[in-house]
Design brief:
Enzyme class: lyase
GO molecular function, one term: 5-dehydro-4-deoxyglucarate dehydratase activity
CATH class: Alpha Beta
Helix content: 40-55%
Number of domains: 1
Number of strands: 8
Structural class: alpha/beta
Pfam families: DHDPS
EC number: 4.2.1.41
Distance between the termini: 31 Å
Largest sheet: 8 strands, parallel, barrel
Organism: Streptomyces parvus
């Protein structure tokens, strides 16, 4: 765990966000040694933050105990140098269990993934994410995907929720994102709510997202070719 709040650390990042792959052995169990080496290599290469046990990290395939051990391993390997954010998903009750396990393991924050295979209305989504944010003392980033698409009004409500610090977009609807960013700025002009480009090919859409003020992005490329991902990030900033 880092000493500064997650939101403050993420506002100052100068590199791609690293989503490590969770390694499994031939017997189907998590190989923590390989996972540790992967996290350590990415941290040493220059990742701005580690998002452990999220989508790329096979969250859906992890038991609660495997999840806790993997998050703890990521926290140990980063040793406070960069923030560690852990995934949390499924239905509300299960998501709360994973969130609390992440907090116990020393994570700095949560990436709140959409409820599994459920399409909810705006009130249901708001209730789910506010309950998850209230369950721990961790700062939470909400993840927008195909089955969890938010209206600008709902994101304004999320931005007003204690503990929710940002929105990661995995949908790719730039018109919607522009309206979301504008709505939050209108209703909360002094709020530094964070936004993330969360598309699998974030490098390809980096300029488009920057056009609406979104500079943070998750890099799938970093997980297997960090040198390329870092070179791209430098070029994007130049």
């Amino acid at each position: 765990m880092t000493s500064a709040p997650l939101a403050a650390r993420l506002r100052e990042v100068a590199g791609p966000l690293f989503f490590p792959v969770t390694a499994f052995g031939p017997d189907g169990t998590v190989d923590l040694d390989v996972f540790r080496a992967h996290v350590r290599a990415g941290t040493d290469a220059g990742a701005a933050a580690v998002f452990a046990c999220c989508g790329t990290g096979e969250f859906h395939a992890l038991t609660l105990e495997e999840f806790r051990l993997a998050v703890a391993a990521a926290v140990e390997e980063t040793a406070g140098r960069i923030p560690v954010v852990a995934g949390a998903g499924y239905g509300t009750a299960l998501a709360v269990q994973y969130a609390r396990a992440a907090e116990e393991a020393g994570a700095d924050g949560l990436l709140a993934m959409p409820p599994y295979l459920v399409v909810a209305d705006q009130e249901g989504l708001l209730n789910h994410y506010t309950a998850l944010a209230a369950a721990t003392g961790l700062e939470t980033i909400v993840y927008q995907r195909d089955n969890a698409v938010f209206t600008p009004e709902t994101v304004v409500a999320l931005a007003r929720t204690p503990g929710i610090i940002g929105l990661k977009d995995g949908l790719g609807d730039l018109d919607l994102m522009q309206r979301i960013v504008s709505a939050v700025r209108t209703h909360r002009p002094d709020d530094d709510f964070l936004y993330f480009n969360g598309l699998p090919t974030a490098e390809l859409t980096g300029l488009a997202y920057r056009g609406i003020g979104i500079t943070l992005y998750s890099s799938a490329v970093f997980a297997f070719a960090p040198d390329i991902a870092l070179a791209f990030h430098r070029a994007l900033d130049s």
